[in-house]
Each structure stands twice: as structure tokens, then as C-alpha cells.
From TrEMBL:
<comment type="similarity">
    <text>Belongs to the class-I fumarase family.</text>
</comment>
<feature type="domain" description="Fe-S hydro-lyase tartrate dehydratase beta-type catalytic">
    <location>
        <begin position="2"/>
        <end position="174"/>
    </location>
</feature>
<dbReference type="InterPro" id="IPR004647">
    <property type="entry name" value="Fe-S_hydro-lyase_TtdB-typ_cat"/>
</dbReference>
<protein>
    <submittedName>
        <fullName>Fe-S-containing hydro-lyase</fullName>
    </submittedName>
</protein>
<dbReference type="GO" id="GO:0016836">
    <property type="term" value="F:hydro-lyase activity"/>
</dbReference>
<keyword id="KW-0456">Lyase</keyword>
<dbReference type="Pfam" id="PF05683">
    <property type="entry name" value="Fumerase_C"/>
</dbReference>
<dbReference type="InterPro" id="IPR036660">
    <property type="entry name" value="Fe-S_hydroAse_TtdB_cat_sf"/>
</dbReference>
């Protein structure tokens, strides 16, 4: 059964999700990879305001390729999530509800997900062209100098994902 979710993804919307559930997400999500996460951490250390509101936010670990003429975005497949594990617990603690990527997460991330009643979802690696068809708008909102690793605001329509780690800590990989 497919579960349709609309952002923002509040605790009420994700608390009933179970590891292994297939979902689609419609609404606004943000992109961020390694370099953007590092900058977010530096901003927090300096007491600066972040360029995105993390409350109930979804961050997709992706560095989209340039759009071909007539397209909103290029290929948008997931990045390996463990590369963001040094930063993810703090972002969950600040209100991020869901991260989306591919691959395993470390125990500190799992603990942060449970502590904050969040979720980790996986997208299909190698399906970047397919996933890009679910993205109806894309704009850079921070760190433009990072190119593909800038933070983008994406408007998505039925973006496919699978719940990997649910709010209770059940992990699909285990």
C-alpha cells in the first residue's frame, strides 16, 4: 500500500509510519549534501540564522545535475546518507523531521530520529532520471557558489520513497 504524504511532515503525520512503508511526498523539500551541511554547522556555531526553517522539514541528500532545455531539473538521484551522519543528529534536534538518501545510518542518527520522532527514508539509487520527473519546481535558496551542492528548494509531486528508519527506531536494513 502506498501512503501519500504532504509537507510539512509533522510528527503527527510520520508517527504512524513503519519501516518498510512505501510513501510518496508532495510539497516542498530541500536539498543538501556534504558541503551544505558543513556550512549549516558553521552557521549554527556562529549563532547565525539558517537559510531554511528546519521545523518539520524534509532534506533530500542530492546534488542535482543541470536541467536540459525545457526541464525543471536534471537527474536527481540520492546521495549516500552516511556522508551527512556527522551533521544529521543536530538537524533532527533542531526540527528536521525526515531525511532522504540511500544507505545505512549510524547509531547517533538512529538515536536522534527516535529522540525527535522523525524518520529516515530511502530513494532508489540509480533512478535519478525517474525521480526528477516528480520535481515540478527547483530554485537555489542558499550557498549558490556550491553549484550542485547548493541548497535547493524543490516542489515535488508524489516523490517516491521507502521508510527505512521509523520514529520507533525500526530499521529496514536490520
Amino acid at each position: 500500500m502506498m501512503i501519500n504524504l504532504t509537507t510539512p511532515l509533522t510528527k503527527d503525520k510520520i508517527k504512524g509510519l513503519k519501516s518498510g512503508d512505501m510513501v510518496t511526498i508532495t510539497g516542498t523539500i530541500y536539498t543538501a549534501r556534504d558541503a551544505a551541511h558543513k556550512r549549516l554547522k558553521e552557521m549554527l556555531e556562529k549563532g547565525e540564522t539558517l537559510p531554511i526553517d528546519l521545523k518539520d522539514a524534509v532534506i533530500y541528500y542530492v546534488g542535482p545535475t543541470p536541467a536540459a532545455p525545457g526541464n525543471v531539473i536534471g537527474s536527481a538521484g540520492p546521495t549516500t546518507s552516511s556522508r551527512m551522519d556527522a551533521y544529521a543528529p543536530q538537524l533532527y534536534d533542531l526540527g528536521m523531521s525526515v531525511s532522504i538518501g540511500k544507505g545505512y545510518r549510524t547509531k547517533p542518527v538512529l538515536d536522534a530520529i527516535v529522540r525527535n520522532q522523525g524518520a529516515y527514508m530511502v530513494a532508489i539509487g540509480g533512478a535519478g532520471a525517474y525521480i526528477s520527473q516528480c520535481i515540478t519546481a527547483c530554485k537555489v535558496i542558499a550557498f549558490e557558489d556550491l553549484g550542485a551542492e547548493a541548497i535547493h528548494e524543490l516542489l515535488v509531486d508524489h516523490f517516491p520513497a521507502t521508510v527505512c528508519i521509523d520514529a520507533k527506531g525500526h530499521n529496514l536494513y536490520e
